[in-house]
């Protein structure tokens, strides 16, 4: 990407990331407050439903950032992660009312929230060329727990949605019809769950490799940042 | 080279003068290369290779046989009471004939018409290509031969128009293949600009660089119209995207290689693409 374009856009990107960061903080604060108010963690989804939808969908912009080169992450990996989150948010949690009160929803919302707060802090500080080692360390260490936590929450939520999807025939098309096509959302969701088996380890090991590269590097010299 | 390292058979060898440059061709002669009294060559292993002919035969035989399995309603596909029954819609029989004709034509062309520039391609391509062709063939055939298949909305009119388009484009596609074959003497790998011949189906060369792809698109549009089946439309679309990529590449090579290349021509769709 031409350096002139990078210089011009980086100011806007920083602002963008700070705004994303603050929104995820909003979600985090919203969750904590609602928890304290209710005394239990049931139904917390409703307290952060709208912000979650807007911000997760807004994350689609991330793919553009990778494509244009503002962020050094891979388009494919980022695109994949954003798509899967948008899918979970809209096509599963929003669409199937009955799963919204499940604990598994909270599990992945918390995992996403913590991950994104760290990630956006990381990007923002990096762009400002003032990255505290703690943030870098957190970004490449917390995922050890957060990834499996998020995946567990996502899989359990999809699994919980299955009986309702089958019963109501949600998003499904049956034969006969004029376009000679059929789609079974229930089967599709099962296939999505199965796809986690090859995909999740790849992403996980990718992060582990990144960690070695990024954090291992710093141990050779003294801390510069 | 092959004598010293027998696992690297000639088709797998890529020899170049510069590590980042293009490979030398089989026909290049040592005396004519830009080297001094000693020459340094760089070798690259292209990986396991497989012949183009083998790949084409496999990837085309699959759809032919798979479609027929669905057409004859072989057990374990549809509900058991429909095993080995035939559809009551005549368009389903017509579609089977067209689909089968198309792939038989492709197989025969591979054996007797096409003259390939490269002998081989990487082995992994056969898995990728067969998944694509076989997978789509199964997906399309499942719905067209389904007991609950719905014939086209505009009935006989629509089917007749579709069949006309399909046949026209099949003949067109074949004409182009023959014209391209005749450009190249047997055993040679020369490249020439294709021009319209006496056959009217080749007059499209005036407007398009790769009319074989244009006609191929037309054939599948015809088949989509004939069957009114969404998976067929999807297959047509994906094929179109891939062929456009190939056509643009070919068009660019023509422009690079031939200074007098006709300017009126587009890669695949006249004036548009």
TrEMBL record, chain A:
> Mind telling me which GO cellular component terms the entry cites?
endoplasmic reticulum membrane
Is Lipid biosynthesis among the key words of this record?
A: yes
E.C. code = 4.2.1.134
InterPro entries for the chain: Tyr_Pase-like_PTPLA
GO BP annotations, alphabetical order? fatty acid elongation; sphingolipid biosynthetic process; very long-chain fatty acid biosynthetic process
Q: In which pathway does it act?
A: Lipid metabolism; fatty acid biosynthesis
Catalytic activity annotated for this protein? Answer: a very-long-chain (3R)-3-hydroxyacyl-CoA = a very-long-chain (2E)-enoyl-CoA + H2O; (3R)-hydroxyhexadecanoyl-CoA = (2E)-hexadecenoyl-CoA + H2O
Q: Which coarse location class describes where this protein primarily resides? A: endoplasmic reticulum
Molecular function via GO: very-long-chain (3R)-3-hydroxyacyl-CoA dehydratase activity
Question: What does the UniProt keyword field contain?
Answer: Endoplasmic reticulum, Fatty acid biosynthesis, Fatty acid metabolism, Lipid biosynthesis, Lipid metabolism, Lyase, Membrane, Transmembrane, Transmembrane helix
The cross-references to Pfam families, in alphabetical order and at most eight, read: PTPLA
Write out the transmembrane intervals. 20-38, 59-84, 104-128, 140-165, 185-205
Where in or outside the cell it occurs: the entry states: Endoplasmic reticulum membrane; Membrane
**Secreted in keyword set:** no
The residue range of the signal peptide is none
- Which superkingdom is the protein from? Eukaryota
Enzyme class, broadest EC rank: lyase
Bilayer topology term: Multi-pass membrane protein
What is the annotated role of this protein in its UniProt record? Catalyzes the third of the four reactions of the long-chain fatty acids elongation cycle. This endoplasmic reticulum-bound enzymatic process, allows the addition of two carbons to the chain of long- and very long-chain fatty acids/VLCFAs per cycle. This enzyme catalyzes the dehydration of the 3-hydroxyacyl-CoA intermediate into trans-2,3-enoyl-CoA, within each cycle of fatty acid elongation. Thereby, it participates to the production of VLCFAs of different chain lengths that are involved in multiple biological processes as precursors of membrane lipids and lipid mediators.
Query: Which family would the database say this protein is a member of?
Result: Belongs to the very long-chain fatty acids dehydratase HACD family.
- Please identify the protein, giving its name as recorded: Very-long-chain (3R)-3-hydroxyacyl-CoA dehydratase
Q: Cite the source lineage.
A: Eukaryota, Metazoa, Chordata, Craniata, Vertebrata
Automatic annotation (TrEMBL), chain B:
Q: Enumerate the spans annotated as TECR-like N-terminal domain.
A: 3-45
Q: Does the keyword Methyltransferase apply?
A: no
Q: Which residues form the 3-oxo-5-alpha-steroid 4-dehydrogenase C-terminal domain?
A: 120-273
Sorted alphabetically, the Gene Ontology cellular component annotations on this record are: endoplasmic reticulum; membrane
Q: Which GO terms describe its molecular function?
A: oxidoreductase activity, acting on the CH-CH group of donors
Q: Where in the cell is it found?
A: Endoplasmic reticulum; Membrane
UniProt protein name: Trans-2,3-enoyl-CoA reductase b
